[in-house]
Amino acid sequence: MTIVYIPIAVIVLLLVWFLVALIWGKPWSVKLLYTRTFLHFALKGPELLTMLGILEKFGLHDHNAKLSDASVANETKMYKWMNRDLAHLRSYPRKRQSPGILLSTDIMDWFLDDLTRTEKFRFHDYPLNQMFGLQSELPNFMLTMHPLVSKLEGRNYVKRLNCFGVKFDQVLEGLKIREEKGVLPPRFVIRRVLDEMIAFIGQPADENPLYTVFKDKLIKLEKISARDRESLLAAAEAGITRTVYPAYQKFIAYFTALEQKATSDDGVWKLPEGGAYYANCLRSNTTTGYTPEQVHEIGLKEVTRIEGEMMAILEKLGYKGVKNAPKKLAVFGKEERFLYPNTDEGRLAGLAEYKRILDEMNAGLDPYFAVRPKAALKVERVPEFREKTSAGAYYQPAAIGGGRPGVFYANMRDMKEVHKFGMKTLAYHEGIPGHHFQIAIAQELKGVPFFRRMVPFTAYAEGWALYAEKLAREIGLYKDDPYGELGTLDSELFRAVRLVVDTGIHHKKWTREQAIEYNEGHTACARETVVSEIERYIVMPGQACAYKIGEIKMVELRDKARKALGDKFDLRKFHDVVLKNGSMPLKLLERVVDAYITAAK
Predict the structure, then answer these.
(1) Contacts of residue 19, Cβ cutoff 8 Å, sequence gap at least 6
(2) Sign (positive/negative) of CA torsion 559, 564, 567, 569?
(3) Number of domains making up the chain
(4) CA 71 centroid distance within chain
(5) What is the pLDDT of residue 435?
């Protein structure tokens, strides 16, 4: 037998070639490209690494002392890198890829292509607004996501506080470029942001949530001395005083001056190439090719259908002569039988009821789901400093590495807004089998590239959550609860109305008052809530359309599978197909369901 010796120099050259291709060029396989692309996103985002909670298991904590680079220069580099990786992805021969790998390739292709399409509109958005932005999201991240489990992480917390100044300066740079291009938020947005920021720094540093919550968590840490605790608290107070507050004051000064230049035109049609920008927003959020006019028409038809179903239930309940079903539900919403006391006791009772609803749902899922998430779900109140501008509820995912459960946050700012007949629907949407179910299952997937456990598609995620609401009604959870059934139909109507008003504002050039009037006439919401919702659509064009479009597609695909398979149709298997492949664009989800139908036949 002849033994062939490969010179060490050749081995080294091959290794160098492999590493160069992996890091800078085209990796040897498409799977390696998946990994590189995901790592590039993750390693450039310390906050994302903190949220994932993986590196800490290996004793790596440096990322928890940093904040991501929000500079225009770094954003430019990211676009260049994404365009390069998209070109590499499309260069791998498709014939050599298995169906599973092809699906991963196409999901990543859609994701990268969607991001690169936004490059021409990169300065069209409003980075700081009443719904989200550095001014609210960064403090919330520090309070809820930073892992305060040791003295080291306490030090990292303080280091992150001292990074606020640089991060705020980077975002301010982008705001000024937008101003030069004529991309100014409507005047009400500026006022809301100013009020929020002024309130946030309108107290001594040691009374700010960044200090008080930090203090509470340090007190609960057993493995830290009183001396170290006091040292960390002193450093945090200094960081808030010397870095955090001055950063906010820069934003306040800028927005105060900007307010004088802003107008009351609310739709993005007013922006340069506003029509193209909105069309891209719709495509990105719904993952479809629907035009704004098509989405508007779908919304009008759905509003008519759902209001008809609500009227039928009201008639069965004996309410004759009702002309507007949502308005009748609004009347119910003021009745004491459907409300909790607006007290601390009432808030606790509301949180307890949400937990009971979720426990009940979770206990009865076996006939409908074969797959279950391992991650636990908690119910908590929205942090009080965020209540005023926060949504009625939202979901925070569990740590993908374990150690932090998923959280369903319920807004308890005013218990007159928490109607008992709407609580089931909200819990199903945000918790089980909605967002927590879908997101936790995706995070726990095995046998797929890691990026598929993380990649977000709004139409899929929100479409599933709205589908979860409908499923609860279909399986009989409102059988003896007609008022709850009205509540869930009102929730669906709320999402259908969004299709009409979002396209109305940004495509048909409706005024803010026109949108408010339509929304008020077709939902049970109080005027304050309606105004808040319309203002949300103004700063997040197209996003609110993803819910109903996603849900309509999922029901359509389920009906398609049921019709094609007849007696062979199994709802549990259909849910497996939708959930165990992770988030994806609706067009690709249809391809996956079609393959399931073919295989099941």
Answers:
(1) none
(2) negative
(3) 3
(4) 23
(5) 97
Instruction: List strands edge to edge, sheet with 406-410.
Output: 377-381, 406-410, 393-396
Alpha helices, DSSP H, located in 510-570? 512-522, 527-539, 546-565
CA distances (Å), origin 186, targets 132, 194, 261, 271, 507: 15, 13, 10, 11, 17
- The neighbour count for residue 156, using CB atoms within 10 Å, is 22
CB-CB contact of 549 with 496 (8 Å): no
Structural domain range at position 355: 278-551
What residues contact residue 150 under an 8 Å CB cut-off, 6+ apart?
Answer: 221, 223, 224
Closest CA to 289 of 117, 517, 515: 117
Query: Helix, strand or coil for residue 275?
Result: helix
Do residues 153 and 99 share a domain?
no
**Structure token digits, residue 305:** 């259908």
Q: Helix, strand, or coil here: 394?
A: strand
- 381 - beta bridge partners? 410
Q: How far separated are the first and last CA of the chain, in Å rounded?
A: 53
Q: Say yes or no: 244 and 146 in one domain.
A: yes
Report yes or no: 157 and 214 within 8 Å, Cβ to Cβ.
yes
Contact 432, 405 (CB under 8 A): no
Helix axes 30-43, 72-91, angle to 10 degrees: 170
Mean pLDDT of 388-401: 83
Three-class secondary structure of residue 25 per DSSP: coil
Q: What pLDDT digit, counting tens, does each position of 51-94 carry? A: 888 888 889 999 999 999 999 999 999 999 999 999 999 999 99
Within-domain flag for 592: no
**CB neighbours (10 Å) of residue 293?**
11
Contact 40, 23 (CB under 8 A): no
d(C-alpha 492, C-alpha 302), whole Å: 9
User: Cis omega before residue 433 (within 30°)?
Assistant: yes
What six digits make up the tokens of 55?
Answer: 């590196």
3-class state of residue 409 by DSSP: strand
Element (H, E) at 259: none
Using alpha carbons, select from 251, 292, 324, 307 the residue that is nearest to residue 507: 292
Strands 406-410 and 393-396: antiparallel
Tens digits of per-residue pLDDT, 90-145?
Answer: 999 999 999 999 999 999 999 999 999 999 999 999 999 999 999 999 999 999 89
Q: Which two tokens stand for residue 448?
A: 């797929």
CA pair distance 490, 483, nearest whole angstrom: 10
Give domain status of residue 269, yes or no: no
Of 231, 264, 297, which closes a domain? 264
Burial state string for 166-185 with b = 16 or more CB within 10 A and e = fewer than 16: ebbebbbebbeebeeeebbb
- C-alpha distances out from residue 192 to 44, 130, 197, 314, 532, Å: 31, 6, 9, 39, 11
